[in-house]
Amino acid sequence: IAAKSPPLLASGVRQTEYMDGSIMGMGGNKVNYGGLYNIQGWGAPYFTVNMEGNLCVKADGQETKAGQEMDVLHVIQAAKQKRKDIQFPMILRFPNVLKHRLDALHAAFHTAISRTRYTNTYQGVFPVKVNQNRAIVHDLVCFGHAYSYGLEAGSKPELLIAMSCLTKEANSRAFLVCNGYKDAEYVRLALSARAIGLNAIMVLDMEEELDIIIHQSSKLGVEPVIGVRAKLLTKIPGHYGSTAGKHGKFGLPADRIYEVAKKLKGLNKLHWLKLLHFHVGSMIPTTELVAKAATEAADIYCTLVNKYDAVEMTTLDCGGGLGIDYDGTRSADSDISVAYGLEEYASSIVQAVRTTCDKAMVSHPVLCTESGQAMVSHHSMIILESLSAIPEPKDDDDDTPEQLRTKIQHHYSASNLPTSTAVMDLQKHGIEAYKLAKKLSKRIAGDANTIYNYHMNLSVFSLLPDVWGIKWRFPMMPVSRLNEEPTRMSTLIDLTCDSDGKIDKFIGNAETLPLHPLDPERGGCYYLAVLLSGAYQEALSNKHNLFGGPSIVRVEKSTAAATGFQIATADLGPTTEELISTMRYNVRQDIVGVIQRRAIEIGVWGMVGEAVHTGLTTMPYLIMEDHAASSWKHQGGLDGKDESIIKMVFRQVSRLLCLPFMWSIPSKRIGSAA
Prior knowledge:
The protein is built from 22 helices and 23 strands. By secondary structure, the protein is α/β, with parallel strands linked by helices. It has 4 domains: 30-94 and 379-390 and 452-573, Lyase, Ornithine Decarboxylase, Chain A, domain 1 (Beta Barrel); 95-377, TIM Barrel; 393-449; 575-621. Strands 6, 15, 16, 17, 18, 19, 20, 21, 22 and 23 form a 10-stranded mixed beta sheet that branches. Strands 7-8-9-10-11-12-13-14 form an 8-stranded parallel beta sheet, covered by helices on one side. Strands 3-4-5 form a 3-stranded antiparallel beta sheet. α3 runs parallel beside α10 and α6 packs across α7 (209-220). The longest helix has 26 residues, at 423-448. The radius of gyration is 30 Å and the shape is globular. The protein starts with 14 loop residues before the first strand and ends with a helix. The model is unreliable at 1-23 and 627-674 (pLDDT under 50). Its EC number is 4.1.1.19. InterPro entries: Ala_racemase/Decarboxylase_C (IPR009006), Arg_decrbxlase (IPR002985), De-COase2_CS (IPR022657), De-COase2_N (IPR022644), De-COase2_pyr-phos_BS (IPR022653), Orn/DAP/Arg_de-COase (IPR000183), PLP-binding_barrel (IPR029066). Belongs to the Orn/Lys/Arg decarboxylase class-II family. SpeA subfamily. It catalyses: L-arginine + H(+) = agmatine + CO2. GO terms for molecular function: arginine decarboxylase activity.
């Protein structure tokens, strides 16, 4: 078979494309198109593509043995078997990845401490705000028991969650770091945590909080342990830089911290002060900035010990900021990437603090970090279901390429006529020809690269609020068919009645995402995975159009199962009834009761009642044919004849939805046509 000249894949793999359409690498092996999405950049060491062309999870990172990868398409199919009424969108959680991230963080600090002869330990906490889901918080505390891994709370609800989880699962040495603005009730809760034996530390974010702590401590008879948050001068660039520096939202400048120490000393309570905390912002881009902030904070720590007699200080809490590489570029010039890994991060902190403390002849403190995003992002992915794909319409009044070429030739000929000697005349024809040439170039490129709007079973506002709120870009890719070339440049459209309900910015500064044509003849659905999405999205989710959260599936590694995994739990997302209730409706009275009375009057309650019941007890997202039929049959409200009619309607609707993209499939590959 004759071969074309070998192009280079986005992954950097040299390929040969044969006339029969197969793709072969230099060694004669089939290659996949995962490289188009830079999976080897942002995905290492947890994500890969297998020989079947399916996205896979490597739960043990680089230590994952061959054949132990979890095929995401098979996971989705197993979840649908586990719970027949499961709906999309859904979150897949891989707790083994969570454990691996936690182990890797502690290994990085252990190595850095050993190599630099640092004389104290590392003891981290997870900031609950990053993902308050019960399973995640409990997993992290359980996985971190041997490390005395603790929790950080920034509000009263989070404090109660942390108190409960640490009481049941944690090592008694684990920190409970109490951040955020505090009133008397917050302080009473934190003191109560100490009263039941938890290692709670209240961090002053405002100087006035000290008086509240002193009063409540005296009132309850519980002695606190306190820390102070430092407002450092070190500032990071980009989106998150506004939360740091002298104009930062939280903390005290160094001179006010020293005043707190003086006040405590005057009250004979300086022994309460144990910790200095700082946070310069999320996604710190370079280790130089990490080290600079740690050095500045360590200098304040040493000053407290040497000049203000805070000799019982024990801990330097370096806050959050440990970033991850969302686009795989390992770049310091992007808000969604960082130029380091776990090892470099840990080494920069340990070295900076050791050097500063040794210079001041102060004992090395226990090192703490509040790394949340870097812990939970990798273990969770959102699975989106494609509904239809529609090509972007062309403007009807646009000239065809042939018409544009004719007009250009006209202006070129006119500029060369003997009578066209005036400079203004030459200029006029030249400018018009230039404009038409640009339009022709754009039109040809547009015809060869039609953009398709993929309608997804998704609410951007509920599932990916950072995409809408701060224009964040998560890595996205198809779950399957990655051994086929994705030929359609696409944007994603959600279900909401809002013009912002779309995704048209992707990693790599791309404005489209390469996807495959939807093909109903293949059977099954076409799924997209939103990767590295385990941080903040659930916590920040809103209810625009009363779309809610997704179904959640917990996937655990299993050496006994042939697939290498087991579905531990599969939970349906919030139902329509639950979502309406959050808006202060009494659903039974305000919704069902009103509709029922009117329907009974008209004599249609038998039909209407079933529709209302199904609508309330399912998620508000669209239900595809198989689920709808099984769900309604399960409710017992329809007989076999009704079910057949409904199935027929759904089949017709599905065909109608498929028509636009079936008609638009080109007879030749876009690349060849271009």
